[in-house]
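Worked example 3 (structure in, sequence out).
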């Protein structure tokens, strides 16, 4: 390091700092080929055009095979835990295999990586330093062999990703430099980030996320081990129903037995015909549960909770339902145990590899993206017999899953607004939960026209039977009637938010849930965001309800005992004459104005800005009931009272 590069504006500083120079400028050597941080290199080795041959007519869609090597080398002084490297592929790459690494978003290969992807080390996730290993490159470096297909460019040209960066926190990467077949970047620790992780620690701290999954090995033998898997929901608004959990076994393991959950398919073919059958000669494979490389695991029904053979695991057997912790902490977890058999060369008590590429889904239409398992401090388990001693897991890994909101998905619920000061109800938005015009082309309706305002009593009538009343009401109010008429909301659940009263010291609202679907909704919950009103929350009468502690503008509601069932739509009392009736639940909520001075309930502060039902965000009307003329107030109090009466009668 003869000529160290540092830019100084004055020689005085230079002289003063001379003695400090080697330290200050240590990580920025003048020779650009020296990297004293994390060196990432992407080398394009070879490739060729693949059939079908589209050249020369259609060069942009011509496919090419590519083989490349991604190398990550730790030349720094601190061990790099759980390395992650982003490779910004941009030639419509389809990755077929990657040695020594997995995709950090949990996707199994082959996978579409056209938007770039993050790689994580597997089976070795940590890169040691030269100091720790006396320069053993095998421990300081990860070499990932990549094979895939790319489009539009390939040999003899050299397609290189325009962007490669280290995705670990606490490092800064400049733009990569390209030379011949290689692009490389040297990432240096960000001096502004003080990391607690020292070279000595072997373990990363637990991370937060919407959902976390622990993989705790609680017993280990030469050829098999027992692992406990615990899924915990941390998101206050969301739930899972009928969860499905997937992962990839990386070392040909198979599941011999299980408690608290089941594989969706019991399939032992891979064992009997595969290497496992060959190795475990004479093993009773007929009772083995799953030999799939990527099993799907589902929960057991409630009745199995106390089944001595299949259940008896705390937090097991929830029929696939995991509630938000804000609703019931004891039901916000699901746990099960698996007995895993290993294959050579892993037949050693200490040789434990967690499965990779985790994915969890549920019928609540949210997508979760799960990272790779990270080794964490062994979990402490309370003694099952109640003795005041804890047992420690042999090894623990944590998988963190965050919700990714699919933009294209339509809501499943919608909200209508009404108030004592205006007799027109603002119904749910047209097509709030989607409109499928293909299924019923004869029934022409407009998907863009705003909905017709309704009289209060027609909220209880299914959309297809409302039209007559809505039209009468429009005529009475001398409103224009569009042609074609607006389509319905098509939501399985709708929620009416009614501002019931507004006086000097306080105000009240009434929330009514309608189930228009074919099945009962058990253990429902809803979260209502009111930007200004929540500090004034006083009481809710028929539901359980409380402001969320970690969000000061949201009230969380759930059915109290007797109100936790939102029954399905059913026939009217006289099916020939009466339309079908939705299941309903209703409660009044009261607020004081003492803690929210200046609140203007009618002008909007009394109406929610966001509503969630069972974990999904609902569609909200775009307009609020107008309070321009309060003359109709008396009659609307009357009509809302009728609605209340109707509902009370219906609930009997
Ligand atoms: C660089 O890529 C070309 C193909 O485009 C290949 O022929 C050559 O062997 C590669 N060089 C190295 C050093 O891998
Ligand atoms: C990929 O990135 C390079 C460099 O930024 C750019 O020149 C090229 O057009 C991009 N290719 C595609 C298909 O986006
Ligand atoms: C890539 O990004 C585009 C635009 O953001 C998105 O529409 C597309 O679904 C992405 N593709 C994949 C495979 O993630
Ligand atoms: C490279 O990708 C990373 C991660 O997606 C991004 O933060 C960064 O801005 C990109 N750099 C460039 C030069 O595009
Ligand atoms: C770093 O470690 C110290 C002492 O162990 C602890 O107090 C502090 O909270 C840690 N900081 C972070 C960001 O983890
Ligand atoms: C998941 O979300 C948590 C908290 O919002 C965040 O700290 C974490 O970085 C996220 N993890 C991933 C893999 O996106
Ligand atoms: C299981 O046993 C516990 C304790 O004996 C009991 O409280 C619980 O109701 C039982 N659960 C089922 C589903 O039978
Ligand atoms: C368990 O889930 C299944 C599938 O969704 C459902 O049909 C069944 O009614 C549920 N059982 C109980 C007891 O909730
Ligand atoms: C198991 O692994 C440990 C540590 O890697 C090693 O010391 C031991 O000899 C191995 N045992 C067997 C039976 O291979
Ligand atoms: C969840 O994943 C399983 C297995 O991958 C799949 O069979 C199922 O259709 C998925 N369910 C939903 C609701 O996406
Ligand atoms: C609510 O929290 C936000 C930030 O969390 C804060 O800015 C706001 O002042 C709080 N409002 C009240 C009424 O406490
Ligand atoms: C309600 O609408 C449905 C579907 O259009 C129709 O079959 C039914 O007869 C209507 N019921 C009444 C009471 O009008």
């Amino acid at each position: 390091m003869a000529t160290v590069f540092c830019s100084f504006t004055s020689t005085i500083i230079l002289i003063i700092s001379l003695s400090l120079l080697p330290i200050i400028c240590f990580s920025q050597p003048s020779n650009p080929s020296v990297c004293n941080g994390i060196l990432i290199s992407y080398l394009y080795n070879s490739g060729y055009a693949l059939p079908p041959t589209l050249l020369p007519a259609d060069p942009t869609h011509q496919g090419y095979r590519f083989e490349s090597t991604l190398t990550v080398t730790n030349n720094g002084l601190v061990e790099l835990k759980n390395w992650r490297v982003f490779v910004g592929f941009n030639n419509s790459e389809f990755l077929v295999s990657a040695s020594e690494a997995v995709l950090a978003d949990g996707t199994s290969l082959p996978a579409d990586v056209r938007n770039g992807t993050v790689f994580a080390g597997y089976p070795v996730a940590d890169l040691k330093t030269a100091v720790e290993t006396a320069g053993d490159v095998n421990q300081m470096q990860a070499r990932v062999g990549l094979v895939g297909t790319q489009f539009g460019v390939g040999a003899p040209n050299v397609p290189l990703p325009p962007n490669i960066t280290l995705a670990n926190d606490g490092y800064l990467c400049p733009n990569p430099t390209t030379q011949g077949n290689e692009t490389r970047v040297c990432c240096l620790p960000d001096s502004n980030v003080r990391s607690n992780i020292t070279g000595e620690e072997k373990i990363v701290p637990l991370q937060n996320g919407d959902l976390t999954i622990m993989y705790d090995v609680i017993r280990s033998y030469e050829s098999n081990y027992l692992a406990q898997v615990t899924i915990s929901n941390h998101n206050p608004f969301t739930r899972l129903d009928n969860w499905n959990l997937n992962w990839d076994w990386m070392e040909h393991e198979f599941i011999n037995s299980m408690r608290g959950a089941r594989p969706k398919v019991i399939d032992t073919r891979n064992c009997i015909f595969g290497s496992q059958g060959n190795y475990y000669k004479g093993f009773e494979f007929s009772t083995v549960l799953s030999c799939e490389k990527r099993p799907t695991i589902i929960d057991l029904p409630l009745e199995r909770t106390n089944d001595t053979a299949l259940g008896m695991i705390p937090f097991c057997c929830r029929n696939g339902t995991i509630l938000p912790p804000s609703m019931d902490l004891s039901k916000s977890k699901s746990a099960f145990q698996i007995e895993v058999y290993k294959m050579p060369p892993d037949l050693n008590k200490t040789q434990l590899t967690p499965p990779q590429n985790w994915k969890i889904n549920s019928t609540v239409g949210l997508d979760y993206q799960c990272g790779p398992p990270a080794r964490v401090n062994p979990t402490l388990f309370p003694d099952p017999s109640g003795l005041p001693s804890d047992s420690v897991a042999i090894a623990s890994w944590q998988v963190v899953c965050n919700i990714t909101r699919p933009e294209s998905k339509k809501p499943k619920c919608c909200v209508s607004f009404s108030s004592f000061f205006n007799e027109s109800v603002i119904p749910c938005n047209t097509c709030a939960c989607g409109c499928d015009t293909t299924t019923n082309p004869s029934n022409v309706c407009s998907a863009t026209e705003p909905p017709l305002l309704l009289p209060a009593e027609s909220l209880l009538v299914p959309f297809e039977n409302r039209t007559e009343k809505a039209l009468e009401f429009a005529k009475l109010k001398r409103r224009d009637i569009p042609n074609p008429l607006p389509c319905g909301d098509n939501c399985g659940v709708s929620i009416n938010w009614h501002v019931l009263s507004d006086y000097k010291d306080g105000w009240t609202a009434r929330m009514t849930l309608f189930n228009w679907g074919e099945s009962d909704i058990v253990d429902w919950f809803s979260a209502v965001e009111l930007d200004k009103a929540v500090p004034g929350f006083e009481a809710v009468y028929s539901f359980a309800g409380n402001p969320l502690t970690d969000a000061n503008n949201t009230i969380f509601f759930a059915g109290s005992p007797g109100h936790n069932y939102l029954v399905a739509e059913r026939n009217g009392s006289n099916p020939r004459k009466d339309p079908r009736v939705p299941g309903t639940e209703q409660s009044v909520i009261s607020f004081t104005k003492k803690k929210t001075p200046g609140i203007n309930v009618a002008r909007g502060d009394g109406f929610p800005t966001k509503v969630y039902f069972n974990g999904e965000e609902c569609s909200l009307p775009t307009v609020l009931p107008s309070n321009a003329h309060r003359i109709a107030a008396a009659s609307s109090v009357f009509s809302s009272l009728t609605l209340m009466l109707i509902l009370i009668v219906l609930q009997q």
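Notes: Residues 1-30, 195-201, 631-639 have pLDDT under 50 and may be disordered. The domain at 413-651 is CATH 2.60.40.290 (Immunoglobulin-like).
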